[in-house]
Amino acid sequence: MSDTLERHEFGAEVGRLLDLVVHALYSDREIFLRELVANAADAMDRRRFEALTQSVSAPPADAKVTITPDKTARTLTISDPGIGMTKAELAQNLGTIARSGTRAFSQSLGDAKAEDKPSLIGQFGVGFYSAFMVADRVTVTSRRAGSDESWTWASDGQGSYTLEQATRDEPGTDIVLHLKEDADEYLESYRLDHVVRKWADHITVPVAIVAEGKTETANQGTALWRKSKSEVTPEQYTEFYRHVGMNFDEPWATLHWRAEGALEFSALLFIPGMKPFQAVEGERASKVRLHVRRMFITDEAELLPTWLRFVQGVVDTEDLPLNVSREMLQATPVLTKIRRAVTGRVLSELGNRAKDAEGYQSFWENFGPVLKEGIYEDYERRGEIAPLLRFRSSAVEGWTSLPDYVSRMKDGQEAIYYLVADDADALASSPQLEGFRARGVEVLLLSDHVDAFWPEQLGRFEEKPLRSVTQGGLDLSKIAATEETGEAPASVESLVTALKAALATDVADVRATDRLVESAVVLSASGSGPDLQMQRLLRRAGRGAGGLPILEINPRHPLIASLAAKAEAGEDVTEPAGTLVDLARIQDGDTPRDPVAFARKVAAALASGG
């Protein structure tokens, strides 16, 4: 045993705290490497900073963090030519849990100019102890820049540590992890490379891995988002876009800016040029990466709302407070402000690009259904999202917007009308449109999975209410017809009375309507309840039918006129009443009440030549 060997007890309740670090503080074991690389990068930044103001030599020009696995010795070594530590600093920084030399150094910077301050990562003094998640013994040999002495700190994490004089030719630190039996994966260079690229790809300090005698750089070493736009080429943007999102295409939009003032952060975001292979409709969380001082922290910070989850990229800040693990973010006002600012910037970009109808079309066809979710989910942003929406229409080819619809509204038209159905192709020929088409009234045709939900949440646009054409009680009488609506209407009072009695369990009401031209019947919903599409969704979800529909009959149709005459003569119309309901259901893409009975009835009618 060396004459300089000293044994010390940890300066905290080490057993409980180390157990917390190893088993509770970090959810992912590989985090240990991020923490040790972060500490090494900090040490190099500190040495550079002190070289500006004190008689300390700067790190060599080719300075880097070096990671060396040794399968024979079962050790993993992380070395850096950073500021190093004295004997006293080893005892203070590593011998007292939750004491952070980085934090103390940050506080000591005082009035140093902002541009001279190094960008430091560590804050809480516990990251080093994550090494014990994979190691049953750790040794740290360090030499402080400006000193000739070297010391080795060593511990098995069981309550004490030793300090012993050592030899190190240059300033810096070597951390040697004696790996546990179940940590063999961290002796493989490809695994180490993956971890570094995931967690530390863009810190400015080079990180190299030694494998089979060769030293290979593992991180990109440059944070594009911290550069000015004039310094980044389109090729670099595309390369980074493909790297961060695992994409193969070109970005449809690139957003690169730095927010300064009370809130400071850098952002580099991309809107993809094509749908990802895994549909964003299924993934319900934003995966924009949060970095703090270039170091990747998490992609689960929800920096954008779910309805912008197709956006990819990085947000990097100096100011965001983190908890001790850096994995669970505190709910701070700073994070809230960053989210608000980033969301606003993305919406502003979409608004500018929406002015180019042709260019915007590709975005909309890729991500329109996701953006619509914002109307349903985000009350505060609805007014900004609504003009960005695009729709198919009964009146124009291609896509149209709500502002364009309003500009085409007819004299006397008081509402924005829309029709929702599962089948986009069937919408244009729906009987629900006949009366609107006869009056030249445009109807928006909606067939995305979210279209049954958001219109009611939006409610109005430019003071015009949104109304589903399947809701009963629509009054089109103020709008003059532009087409002939058919024969003179038959008197249907007796038929209405008979149909109400025959269909008492199937419909809520029967009424004559002037919004049909070619069809005999149509179903509608109560004016105060959900429309027909929502009722169908409720039935499929087992949450009730949402109320019985209303059967509307066309007094100008020959079939209705014929049945009206029979009812007037006192004949029984019970059987044709049921057929009318089934026909109306089929027209709306639904099934007959009893498909087998309906098929038999149709077959019998065809056989009899009826």
UniProtKB/TrEMBL annotation:
Q: Which domain of life is it from?
A: Bacteria
Alphabetically sorted, this entry's keywords are: ATP-binding, Chaperone, Cytoplasm, Nucleotide-binding, Stress response
Where ATP is bound, by residue? 35, 39, 80, 85, 93, 100-101, 123-128, 173, 326
Sequence segments annotated as region (C): 537-610
Extract one GO cellular component term from the record.
cytoplasm
| SUPFAM superfamilies reported in the protein's UniProt record | ATPase domain of HSP90 chaperone/DNA topoisomerase II/histidine kinase, HSP90 C-terminal domain, Ribosomal protein S5 domain 2-like
- Predominantly, its location class is cytoplasm
Record-annotated Histidine kinase/HSP90-like ATPase domain positions: 28-183
- GO MF: ATP binding; ATP hydrolysis activity; ATP-dependent protein folding chaperone; unfolded protein binding
Can you say where in the cell this protein is located? Cytoplasm
* Pfam families (UniProt xref): HATPase_c_3, HSP90
Region: A; residue ranges are 1-326
| Function statement | Molecular chaperone. Has ATPase activity.
Q: Of which family is this protein a member?
A: Belongs to the heat shock protein 90 family.
Q: Which PANTHER family match?
A: HEAT SHOCK PROTEIN 90 FAMILY MEMBER (PTHR11528)
NCBIfam families (alphabetical)? PRK05218.1
Q: Assembly and partners? A: Homodimer.
Q: What is this protein called?
A: Chaperone protein HtpG
Give the species: Methylobacterium bullatum
Q: Which gene encodes it?
A: htpG
